Design the sequence.
């Protein structure tokens, strides 16, 4: 399972998983010791707080996957920075995203070849619970950055 987590993001450390029906929860946390403030670029290692962040990823062995991330907020050491704290971010996940970038890309790829109703039905069978409105919104936005 650790190797699968590393495929999603090198900065994740696998902590455990649970199975329930057609869903698997994978618990991860960051293995970084310090991160850059996204506002000023100063490196920080002082943790302010922790919170749980959940997002969906590509299915594993036909099971829908939800990642449970123990995310950290950090203090910014720069006294001139407009923000005193910031949350660590990851390349695999958009800001405040509820789906990994690779899941979003898979949804868009399926939706480009079918109608939004057909794509939603196909995706619900084993990829992710996504409605036609979400699919249309994703197609308007385009692939994640």
Sequence:
């Amino acid at each position: 399972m650790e190797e699968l987590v590393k495929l999603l993001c090198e900065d994740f450390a696998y902590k455990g998983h649970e199975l329930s029906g057609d869903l698997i929860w994978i618990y991860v946390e960051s293995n970084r010791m310090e991160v850059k403030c996204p506002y000023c670029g100063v490196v920080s290692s002082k943790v302010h707080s922790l919170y749980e962040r959940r997002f969906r990823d590509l299915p594993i062995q036909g099971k829908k996957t939800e990642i449970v991330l123990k995310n950290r907020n950090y203090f910014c050491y720069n006294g001139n920075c407009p923000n005193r704290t910031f949350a660590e971010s990851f390349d695999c996940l958009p800001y405040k995203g509820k789906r990994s970038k690779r899941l979003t890309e898979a949804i868009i790829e399926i939706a480009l070849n079918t109608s939004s109703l057909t794509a939603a039905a196909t995706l619900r069978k084993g990829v992710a619970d996504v409605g036609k409105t979400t699919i249309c919104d994703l197609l308007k936005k385009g692939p994640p950055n």
